[in-house]
Specification:
By secondary structure, the protein is mostly beta strands. The protein contains no helices and eight strands. The chain is about 0% helix and about 65% strand. Strands 1, 2, 5 and 6 form a four-stranded antiparallel sheet that branches. The chain has a four-stranded antiparallel sheet with strand order 4-3-7-8, with no helix packed on it.
Length: about 110
């Protein structure tokens, strides 16, 4: 079995990107193998930037993800992060299923 917990979701603007950090902890007897996806949502509810990357967690980690914010208007947005056990590059029979892990936080672009 594998279970992943996330806390401390923390975005920050770095040049033309939004850098995202979160503390991930794996529990259970197997490594987590899955996908991390993020979306930046504007005030109208539209996703204006996204990222999606394969990921693995063996113990605890504080990974860094980035998404482009070039050309976006300054102001408030909501960052949504979702971690799932699905992977496009691996057959489903080698993936241990687990409930999705989700978090979101307000972001202000300068």
């Amino acid at each position: 079995t594998t279970v992943l917990t996330m806390h401390g979701l923390h975005p920050g603007v770095e040049h033309a990107s939004l850098a995202i950090r979160a503390h991930l902890t794996r529990e259970g007897s197997a490594a987590f193998v899955g996908t991390v996806a993020g979306a930046l949502i504007d005030s109208a509810g539209h996703a204006v930037s996204r990222f999606k990357v394969p990921s693995a967690v063996y113990i605890e980690t504080d990974p860094r993800f980035t998404m482009p914010v070039t050309g976006l208007a300054s102001g408030p947005y909501r960052l949504r992060l979702e971690i799932t056990s699905a992977r496009e590059d691996l057959p489903s029979e080698v993936i241990l299923p687990m409930p999705p892990v989700r978090d979101s936080v307000e972001v202000r672009l300068p």
